Amino acid sequence: MEELKHKDITEKIIGSAFEVHKFLGNGFQEVIYQRALAYEMKNAGLEFSREIEQDIFYKELLEPIGTRRADFVVEGKILVELKAITKLEDVHLAQALNYLKAYKLEIGLLLNFGSKSLEFKRLILTPKSAKSLNPLNP
After folding, report:
1. Which terminal residue of the chain has fewer beta carbons within 10 Å of its beta carbon, N or C?
2. 7-132 in CATH: which number?
């Protein structure tokens, strides 16, 4: 069986998220979970940046058409996007995959603290998934 890429880092992030959810439960705003997760990841020895602004480019345009901010980039390798909603939906997965593409990262985690149990999705940006994000080029 093939080893998951950056498994050691993603396991620490997910463990930190479980610790946050165990302590806080659900029902808080996303920013509360973001601050608590930053504390837990720091205690786990993870290096991270919060809310790094990333330019979004379109086709051949030289100027960006906008910016986005992912919640965390961990160890310069893993994008972490947080939600505090009742249920994750396809639109949230698409958003996280778009962030992976914009940040030029391959692996991401989508963490939802809003449900009774912590929900998490491990995302991998492959050439096929990057292509499928373009509705004109499925």
Report:
1. N
2. 3.40.1350
User: What is the DSSP-derived secondary structure letter of residue 75?
Assistant: T
Tell me the pTM.
0.85
Query: Domain locations in the chain?
Result: 7-132
CA nearest 101: which of 126, 76, 122, 138? 126
Say whether pLDDT at 56 is over 90.
no
Whether 109 and 82 have beta carbons less than 8 Å apart is answered as no
Confidence class of residue 104 from pLDDT cuts 50, 70 and 90?
A: confident
pLDDT value for 128? 62
CA angle, 6 then 73 then 64, to 5° = 125
Question: For the chain, what's the residue count?
Answer: 138
Sign of the Cα torsion 130, 135, 137, 138 reads: positive
